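Protocol step 4 of 6.
Sequence for ABC transporter permease subunit (Sediminibacillus dalangtanensis) entered exactly as in the expression construct, tag removed. Do not edit the line below.
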Amino acid sequence: MTFQEPGATALTISNYVEFFTNAKYYDTIWRTLYLVVPAAIIELFIAFGITYFIRGKMRGGGLIAGLTIFPLTLGSIIIDMAVIAFFKPTGWFNTTMMNMGLLDEPFTLVYNYWGAFIALIILGVAFIASNLVGMMDSIDPNLEKAARTLGASHWVTFKRVFWPLIRSNVLTVFALNLIMQIGVYSTAVIVGNPASETRTFVVVAFEEAMRNFNYNMANTVAIVMGITQLLVLGIVFAIRKRGFVGSASTFK
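Step 5 output, structure tokens:
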């Protein structure tokens, strides 16, 4: 269908020409990446920091891990509604900040780019942390103890021992989370601004299919989104191959 015009049977690339020459369509590439790439990077740093801090036999580590991963059980729509309730002009965030004298008027953090950005980070941190918790514990702590015994600092031990062992798995989880968020829809519509700032691939594909009944263009948007996801996956995996890619626990 992506190589056909509505109601026609002849093969054509007109849908792709329309996509890459009409800003209404090709802007979705940059808007989607502008939303999800910065969010995915921040999610990785937050999730890595939390799971690195609670690894091993830290007291209360299980509770922190559970609270970090808990948003995954709620789903994106409930997270979106919670973000609206918390960050809306009369929500807890603005009310608290104004009562403390830190804001003179409510700060707009919903129904725009930042609303979707916050909701993505909450879910993304939960997803990445759920994968990193086990990976962190799979690395033998005796390796770090040996490095510290030989005089290495905490930073050198992390840089030369811990990070090379977990780097491959971290980049794999980062890539999976990134391509998953490229397909964001409910967050872009509910807590973002789907008419402009958060007009992502799936928002446009849904509009073409359900509002304009142009299934051919909807499929074209889906194909471009899939190619974008494959390109992003290829870039991250190319970076991943530049280091150790074996198991962190077996070194094979």
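Step 6, annotate. The chain has twelve helices and no strands.
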